[in-house]
Amino acid sequence: MEIIIESDAGALADRAAQIVFAELERKPDLVLGLATGKTPIGLYQRLRTKPKAFAKVRFFNLDEFFGLAPSDPASFNHFFYEHLLNHVKFNPRNVHLFRGDVKDMEEQAQKVEDRIKALGGIDLQILGIGRNGHIGFNEPGSSLGSRTRPKTLEPDTVEHYGGKIPNLAITMGVGTIMESRRCLMLASGADKAEIVQRMVEGPITSEVPATALQMHPRASAVLDEGSASKLKRRDYYKWVFANKWRAGQT
Ligand code: GLP
How many angstroms separate the alpha carbon of residue 248 from the centre of ligand 1? Predict the structure, then answer.
């Protein structure tokens, strides 16, 4: 995993935006997987500064709560319109976000898997990490080969949302996420330090689904000093990033 440590949440968002814009420049019709949560909001604010860059982008997202219609302010669908889509130019036919209000969630899961394949796979998947190590809503114990499916949420996860959300969700599987060409994991703040240490330096285990990223050929974790504070080899990662070979460099 490539580890990039920035000073604070603002610098983390700047770095993440730089990575996303570089991918968009390379491929304007990028297949982009979006993530919810507090962490990527700064990234989305920066992406909004180039509204035309999204005209051809194909959008997917990681997960959604059962039963919440896109009009529900607690739905993730609503989140993406509020923080990104309402502020950029996009083609509605290119938006493939989950809906929480469909009856047959397994059918929706299969449709999303099929659509991702039909579009050639996800080019860039943005990710966050739950304090229990989940990615998307792949809670601890999720198979590292899992596909998109309905998932029961841990009481702790429900609590994270103030207890006001359903305890069932639909999520891309760990295996689905792992097929993305590039993963961009964002984690900010000292309350993520312990789980970030396990994700980067711990053993690969379904108890911490985010550890699957250690097996990904192209995963970058953009951290801030808070979330990186428990990494045993923190200084080494900084040194590597400062000294790495970059395309165009002789
Ligand atoms: C939710 C989402 C995850 C996200 C996590 C972290 O559980 N399903 O995809 O990564 O929250 O959110 P935050 O960035 O608010 O800590």
Answer: 35
Active site amino acids:
63, 132, 134, 139
Strands of the 58-61 sheet, one edge to the other: 2-6, 219-224, 182-187, 124-128, 31-34, 58-61
- Residues 66 and 100: beta-carbon distance below 8 Å: yes
For residue range 1-27, list pLDDT tens digits in order: 999 999 999 999 999 999 999 999 999
The token pair that represents 220 in the structure block: 């970058």
What one-character-per-residue DSSP string does 3-61 give?
EEEESSHHHHHHHHHHHHHHHHHH-TT-EEEE--SSTTHHHHHHHTTSGGGGTT-EEEE
Non-local CB neighbours of 29 within 8 Å, separated by 6+ positions: 56, 57, 58
Query: Residue 220 in contact with residue 2, Cβ under 8 Å?
Result: yes
Give, using CA atoms, the residue closest to atom 9 of ligand 1: 136
Helix or strand or coil: residue 13? helix
Residues 7 and 188 sit within 8 Å (Cβ to Cβ): no
- Digit-coded pLDDT (tens) for 39-53: 999 999 999 999 999
Which residue's entry shows tokens 């989940």? 134
Across 151-174, average pLDDT: 93
Centre a 10 Å sphere on the Cβ of residue 141 and count the other Cβ atoms it contains: 10
pLDDT band at 247 (very low <50, low <70, confident <90, very high): confident
CA of 187, closest atom in ligand 1: 14
Nearest-atom index, ligand 1, CA of 63: 8
DSSP state of 124: E
